[in-house]
Amino acid sequence: MLKLLGRRNAYNVRKVLWLLDELDLPFTQEDWGRGHRATDVPEFLALNPLGTVPVLLDGGEVLRESHVILRYLAARQRAWSLYPEALAARARVEAWMDWVAYDMTMPMRGAYLGGELGLDPWKHPWCVELGRTEYTRRMAQLDAALAAGGPHLAGEAFTLADIPAGFVVHRWFAMQGFAKPALPAVDAYYERLSARPAYRLHIRNGLV
Hints:
4-stranded mixed sheet, 208 residues, alpha+beta, single chain
């Protein structure tokens, strides 16, 4: 059986939990990370020398990095509607996954870790302001893309593209303390995702 290591309230773990439920896969889960078992102990570092969560165990296979795990699970289950076999269609899905990984990481650190949680070193006013400004700019890009295409990021169907982006959208609405422009396409997308039980269970579940 699959085993997922990482606390259930962690950003990257929640994305994997969402997909596991979408795929209706049986799994066990252990809490590791902030507030739970430390990830800098030899037992964990033997699995992931970076000491980060999530880690997925599948028999003798050990995987790290949430987006890698998402791709692995979809391919493992041959869930081609989520992760297309056709290279061009797959590239459109992966482009949005990489957009979250690269373009949204720093804005989320400033806006969320600094502005929402007040964590060092991200709570410096300069970092918070930059994070909120960039988060707002990126969300406007997302709104334009959804308005021009949709109803999901890679087209008509729900795909892996919507899992990382769906979390970014949830965090946008959950964060407080700064002005946000009207983004009607993002609003509609948030409600569309919220119709999915796994999204309600793991993402739009009262946590930021």
